[in-house]
Sequence to fold (1054 residues):
Amino acid sequence: MLTGKNYIGNTLSSKGEITFKTFNPETNRENDVVYSEASDQEIQQAVNLATSAFASYKNLGGIKKAEFLNAIADEIEALGDELIQTYCSETGLPEGRAQGERGRTVFQLRSFAAMVKEGSWVEAAIDTAILDRQPIPKTDLRKMLVPLGPVVVFGASNFPLAYSTAGGDTAAALAAGCPVIVKSHPMHAGTGELVASAIHKAAEKTGMPDGVFSNLNSSGIHVGIELVKHPSIKGVGFTGSIKAGRALFNLASQREEPIPVFAEMGSVNPVILLPEAAKERGVDLAKTYAGSITLGSGQFCTNPGLILGIKNNDFSQFIDSLSDEILKIDPTCMLHPNIIGNYEKNKALVASQPGITVKADFENDVDVNYGRQTILTVEGATFLENSVLHQEVFGPYSLVVQCESKEQLAEIINNLEGQLTGTILAEENELSGNQKVIDALQNRVGRIIYNGVPTGVEVCPSMQHGGPYPASTDSRFTSVGIHSVKRWVRPMSFQSWPDALLPDALKNENPLKISRLINNISTSDSI
Amino acid sequence: MLTGKNYIGNTLSSKGEITFKTFNPETNRENDVVYSEASDQEIQQAVNLATSAFASYKNLGGIKKAEFLNAIADEIEALGDELIQTYCSETGLPEGRAQGERGRTVFQLRSFAAMVKEGSWVEAAIDTAILDRQPIPKTDLRKMLVPLGPVVVFGASNFPLAYSTAGGDTAAALAAGCPVIVKSHPMHAGTGELVASAIHKAAEKTGMPDGVFSNLNSSGIHVGIELVKHPSIKGVGFTGSIKAGRALFNLASQREEPIPVFAEMGSVNPVILLPEAAKERGVDLAKTYAGSITLGSGQFCTNPGLILGIKNNDFSQFIDSLSDEILKIDPTCMLHPNIIGNYEKNKALVASQPGITVKADFENDVDVNYGRQTILTVEGATFLENSVLHQEVFGPYSLVVQCESKEQLAEIINNLEGQLTGTILAEENELSGNQKVIDALQNRVGRIIYNGVPTGVEVCPSMQHGGPYPASTDSRFTSVGIHSVKRWVRPMSFQSWPDALLPDALKNENPLKISRLINNISTSDSI
Fold:
């Protein structure tokens, strides 16, 4: 049962005066539940609770944290059909997608649970004392990762489950030992409340301190700003637009004590189609890419929004096939009238630029809030000159760039903004002749794909989701996979500390049986 | 032979109009060599060279990079007595310190050489494909750390060798695969030029690309600002004051493409003397701390500038002993008239605050530029109220705070700014009764020491040198030890990439024989 209230730690609360509703883009109507935006007092209460929860939560062992994370996964599953229906009613996305995203969400939670239960993730390093070293003795020094403190997670519009309330950012932060305050996304506040209720139940069942998690409703930017500015907040996770992510980054950088902001933002995910592949497989690739561009109405951060090739007959044929194939696909509902409004506006802006040709634009009647897929083309020289064409158009859209030469292609890549992904579509024998293009692409991306599609972000340790700015604000971290925990921790050294008082991860006997670096050798042995 | 010129890659260059000299604080005279500040044109040339060097240097194998780093160490040693004499003439520090710091510098270079030669530092992670997975196949994904790009390193006034031209920041960045441009510190431009000449020789001998290293002279802030603002620069390393470090951080955050700045800045390194230890060992500890406070004229970032205890007779006795002992020590020369000028000014500012008592102040005649050691005391309540007292006074100085109670002590720690280190001086039996104080201290520091002194920063993997702001701008990284390489790298994933074209670290056969995470299991096996 949705209440429309905030979770201030364990307490449902609605003291604020601002209210709002979510919107069903399929029915084009508001949903019924009235949500109460968190008041300044509620924000302060949530931060105070998180700060006091940190004192005990930071010292909790991996087994207890794993219980909590697994219990969250269980409770999310136990929400059953109500979660799926609420999700669909707030996003216009189909049930299958809701179920898939729920599966991804609980998988992430359980992956982090397994990681903290095993325990080696703290990167324990020990250098033992050498008391007779000349000219001065070497003291005993032991290092491990410790949590930063309470952090804020912003829900993402396009992933109501996997990158929102109990999504990757939250799971990673809770695994790290950081209490989390979620700034719920207004478009799916109901989904957020249900998931928050699951976290709340899991926290109670596993004996977590009150305040380890709070969920704050918000209709605008005020709640997020207050949270990021609060001196007790020590880190921020965000998934969304460049404009909003950069604003949060600026705010955090300007604090008296700057804090890290990991914002995963915009990306056009360039795809380079090399000539041999265009010749051999152009038609097949066109079909594959028509599917990738329209997947989930193009509302993925890894949507291929830019396709580059060398101008010739094969590439022209590819463009024709892509345009034909994409028009065969039925448009689908987008997340919200604001999202489709921005899509139409941004697409029109690109289409109005000099030198742009509209190759495909779905023209049949569609339901309201359904996104019409579009393929535009432009010459390489024109693309180079006009940075408007470089910008992400969030939706089922791709811009195809016809380059004059390999050299122009490399120049375009070198001048691209940072990207989450880059893809090379090639025959294996033409890779060696295009090393400059590949090298250039590697410098601009977090993940480089060979003969695949960028959509589909596997949750596994070797996934890098993040990249040079503006793909993310700090390319040194990923937001997907267990290594994303590193955003929320810092190393701390204990010098000459009594063994009995050290954290278990650093004790001589290695009670957790974890892998440690002892005198620069990796081992699971005791000392 | 010193030339006073900049190293723009392999080329000695002096096109600028601004010149300056270094200063010998022992003789209180300028040194002879005239240094030429890098012009805007030279800055641009250095960045261009670094950018083109990156294209090949980033792909260099660990064995080649190790040769380069070891050759730098060899060439620094081959500079022999000229380096030591130049160092001493620019710092007022004694020969023994120069030799020790040279030893630390070459040890760091060789540690990074060993790390890149071994190769596992790239944190290779591989998830192999599962082509028959339902509902969609799992693709092959492989991740490793890759260098950010050209970075800028600012020389530190207090470590002309170990944290300047070929110091920890430079060694870590070169190990990572990042070309380095050093903004040389004006106080020791000669030492910097000699070390740059050693790097230059090493680069030539080992066949490194021109531009992998440049050394730019500067007398003020212009050169540093231009470098940090340059779009081709991808990271910044800095050791120095909070004011300068924060200015660089702000500049880097405000760029169109923000870049990471790792600034290791101010710290007062609080030392907590618990009552039993004060009673049992107060006199001995006073002697030890008199030495730690005056070591190197107090010009270490880990100098114990704040000592806290509970007001009682034993603590008063400690303060008396500390004051007596510190006055027995002969003052030594400080780095530069500006440094001693700031020391006297900052000390006077604290001494003039209400409630401050001067317990010891060296009053005998000293040579010009010699720092007089000073111990001040204050009550806990007064300290809490006045943030002027929290600030670092760089020099042989410590402020002793007499707290009313354990609770007040914990409150003071909770309200302290972030610190590089915190020290607990205690008998083992009194630790359990002071858990709140210890917990509070852990939240504020990067390294916590039991019954030792904070001075002495061991170069080893388990050292964390860095801490919550303002100890450093990003507590998630260290600036000392091989793990400091993580500041200059980002993870990158290769999806479905042909084995032959993968970097060696990610190839099936594991030709480097490194430790890798394969399907979430750590192993050195091939696939």
